[in-house]
Amino acid sequence: MHGWGDRVSSGDTLWVDDPQFPANASRAVNDAQLRRNIRKATSTIRERRAGLVAEVPDWQELRDSGSAIKDEVLRNLDRYLEQFEAAASARGAHVHWARDADEANAIVGDLVAATGEREVIKVKSMLTQELGLNDALAGRGINAYETDLAELIVQLGQDRPSHIVVPAIHKNRAQIREIFLAGMGDAPPELSDDPQQLAEASRRHLRRKFFEAKVAISGANFAVAQTGSLLIAESEGNGRMCLTLPQTLISLVGIEKLVPSFRDLEVFLQLLARSATGERMNPYNSLWTGVTPGDGPQSVHIVLVDNGRTNVLRDELGRQALRCIRCAACLNHCPVYGTVGGHSYGWVYPGPMGSVLTPALIGVDQAGHLPNASTFCGKCESVCPMKIPLPNMMRHWREREFERHLSPAAMRRGLAFWAWFARRPAAYRLATRATMAALGLLGRKKGKFRRLPLAGGWTGGRDLPAPEGDTFFARYASAQRHGRL
Ligand code: SF4
Known about the structure:
Layout: E1 8-10, E2 13-15, H1 21-29, H2 32-54, H3 59-75, H4 77-90, E3 94-98, H5 101-115, E4 119-122, H6 126-131, H7 133-138, E5 143-146, H8 149-156, H9 173-183, H10 195-212, E6 215-218, E7 222-224, E8 229-234, H11 238-244, E9 248-254, E10 258-259, H12 265-276, E11 284-289, E12 299-305, H13 309-313, H14 329-332, H15 335-340, H16 351-362, H17 364-367, H18 379-383, H19 390-404, H20 409-422, H21 425-442, E13 448-449, H22 456-459, E14 464-465, H23 472-481
Parallel strand pairs: 3-12, 4-5, 4-6, 6-9, 7-10, 9-12
Antiparallel strand pairs: 1-2, 7-8, 8-11, 13-14
The protein binds iron/sulfur cluster.
């Protein structure tokens, strides 16, 4: 098993962990504390989101606009990228292009090394997680300090993010207190697990970093082609500190983050805040364009990162994943994510968006079982502000996965057996009726099965209730006969 940050080459992308979703998930399913932490946090966000979405009368039209704008960008990405580069350069930013993680990490490492600094502060960025940037910098003797509270918790705990918006969602406040006492050198020894005390301890710890750091690294939520501006939306103000105090600012931007014009931000900022954290507006929206003499960082670098994205563009269906604005609404509503948490997915992008982005970015070979990590309830698609057809896309990747991976003889024989029955409804009904009757009889005493041959995948993680009554077909036919349908 590879550790987080281990680098396994996959063409021009990077694989950072072992994609053993079934094994990871069955371990996580047995962690009751993890499930409690995740359910508590996601249910709060879900409720807040639902209330705020309901108060926007044109929410569906906003979703339509957002996805149409992103589709337009993806169709003309080359033109918008060049427009962005020209506009940002004209305002004093240095624009760099990185084909893959190695190039991006080398560019950032060289830029930091040129300043002579050995420490950088960071604004939370999923792209830098994807690139394994912190480890790459550490390999060059440069320490990167995360300044988002949840990212700080994850970093001090030598852990991994398990959610794209709330990276420490799997930890409760008692666990966070322990992490602070063990990993934060200046944490007060009398620190309790009171949220205010924890926030205060991190604020004091980070404030020193903000004032000392000469170099900051950020991602970007959006990049405006028309003006060359970048935008970061956040809730704690740490981003604002990182983006304004240091002398050098290096921003890594996935090439799909472009929007054509400044006006388009109006659409995305409404969609993002409500979908991500259940707020009408992010408390801090920091927007900057190149260098402003005498104000803020005087050396501004923007690294435009591909890392597999142009490959995704070639796939008509798969390219829709690039509309994603990383709001995490699909994670917060996914019953699978809610049960197994983010670490089970094995890479930086968990939940439904991970199940479509991971195979798109690093290939179905490496993504393995991820497109199957779904109940196909469709909730993810219904809440996605960018109207990404997540279940359909998972089916798309499932087909690819089946063609390439999951075709051992036993599975083929099993499917052929099932197909024989599926083509013969009378035989199918007879077989299911006989099976139901037999299971009902066998499980009569306990009402459930702890283990069952051929159903090990189910009973490995939960009991199988013994069937009661008749099959669905028989009940349906009976309801029709008695005029109940
Ligand atoms: S797929 Fe949709 S819901 Fe999920 S993170 Fe991306 S934009 Fe948000």
